[in-house]
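Reposting from the mailing list since nobody answered there.

I have sequence plus structure tokens for a pair of proteins and want to know whether others read the tokens the same way I do. The first protein:
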Amino acid sequence: MGVFQCTNQLIGFVGSFSEFYRHSLFIESFREVQKYNVQIAEDTTKESFIRLQKHIDFDNVSFHYKGSEYLAVNNVTFRLNRGEKIALVGHNGAGKTTLVKLLLRFYDVTSGAIRFDDKNIKD
């Protein structure tokens, strides 16, 4: 009986190392975000903060990361109306986080446009 308990404890202990490793991958991603340097000029005047009145449009938005030959997002089109809630669902690497980064202007789109109440967010 004691041998089985000891074996189970040992298996649990060894298994925790894989969990530590899995969590360390998330920590590394968090550290990368903290080191990120904004590449877009920032306008922090009061006039630059506009409240959404109607909708946000993604119009044939495509994007690829610098140094990559593959599109992270390819011809995405949708409208998000004011007050509406959506969920971005997809496999790892499908472009969910990239869409949010584009909306927040961490990056500019490669092609297409993102419009905030019919005004291009680049403007």
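The second protein, same order (residues first, tokens after):
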Amino acid sequence: KININFASPKVLEVHPYISNRMLRRIINHRELKGGWSTIEEMIESNIFTEEEAERIAPYLDFGTHSE
């Protein structure tokens, strides 16, 4: 699983379900506002649509520490 709050752009960009648009939104949001606790927060932040979130959620971890 990818820790969405701490993974580097290089790690995120190779994931087949993360588009360039999503990658830019993830990085920009993390820099401005920090990370997320749930996939629902990512939908509310317009990072993912509900369909995209359903597909990618099993691959994400929302930990609060970089590991």
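Reply #1 (J.P.):
I read it the same way you do. The first helix runs from residue 9 to 13.
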